[in-house]
Amino acid sequence: MKVTFNGRDREVSHVAELLPGRFFCGIGVCFGCVAEINGVPEVRACRHQLRDGDEIRTQR
Amino acid sequence: MRIVVVGAGPAGMAAARTAADAGAEVTMVDSEPEAGGQFLRGRAKFEHRGVTHLKNTEAWMVEGHTLHLRGPRQLHFDALIIATGAYDRPLPFPGWDGPGVITAGAAQALAKQGVTLADRVIVAGTGPFLLPVATALQNLGATLVGVYEANSPLAWARETKAVLANRHKIAELASYRKALSHLETRTAVIAKHGDRVTVAKLDRHWRPVSHRTEHADLVCIGYGFLPRTDLVPNAKRTNDFLDVDELQRTSVENVYAAGEVTGIGGADLAEAEGIIAGAAAAHQEPPLIAVEAVRRGRLFAQALARAHAVQPGWQTWLNPDTTVCRCEKVSLADLTDAASMRELKLTSRVAMGRCQGRICARNAADLTGIPFDGQRRVIAVPIPLGELADLPEETS
What we know:
Chain A contains no helices and five strands. By secondary structure, chain A is an all-beta fold. In chain B, strand 21 (323-325) and strand 22 form a beta hairpin.
């Protein structure tokens, strides 16, 4: 998938690859992977089905 | 008769089907996009007459006969069945909060989506669940450096009754042959720095007796499971799992529980408990075959809890600067002397972050010697204030 992560173009097969050290429980319990996805704040990234063109932000 | 089931894993699906077949009007609420829970993850094609399946929906509070959902939305019920399952308990060690460490459940969830994250992997923890995780990673082409079981399989020698009643579970082991050859017992990962992983041999209390270095990019950990009991903070529990009677009733009136939220025993036990809960909630006699399956399954669950109990020696794996609470970056040295969990939270901020202690509260209690009184939260998932403001003033 081609996505934008903190303003940079990245190509990944899973959102976990963008969040090393933060993606942890993988099932929405630990909130480690919380990010802004396509403008929506506080999304648990592990519960988001990544699509081409998604914009993921962990910093402003 | 309105019955609401929370969770769409093996227990929730069985409860919903059984209750609908008994004539109840059933709503099954689940946070995932498809039914199946963590076990069947999207592979259960659920459709059943009389069951409305609300996908991608999180429930956040029970108030009398009302279940509050994100949205906001309310469901009114005559009986509620909690089938919310459990999640991996991680144990902290130096480096567990850095890159390349995830829970075994996360590895399993990723594997079911065809993703491994790394070439060289280690699976470490305790319990038979480590084996399917290791096998799934191998099947995706990862190199399995090791499967480290902290307990000794000899504990199962004392569990003949449970083993004889559950021979099919033992037969299952054969399907993990390829991973079993990498299994080391009384062994654990006690530190990870970059790809250097410290692997220790343990005594029976899990204190390290010797160690070596292995190289791995990903360590997947799971030291048993913690139940998701958030919706019924006042229900009686043992070791944090919900207490239920022979009809799967909790101590809260009109609230039933089924599956891993009552104890860890596998999908077949969860399904049988779901059938009993679904029948009982709809005022029907539970089928004898399910009652017998629960009896057998509980023998196994109890044996599992004994043979794979977490031993206190893990507390020696931490350094003073090792993170205990990931959300609030609270280290071992930051844990204050406190008389209660509440005091410990307020003085150290442990368990005060986004996960609300789901990952660290149990470990923090063990590390400080404060009695663990179970995880009790008023609100089960974070909700925006706007949603609270949108609630009708009277909801009953």
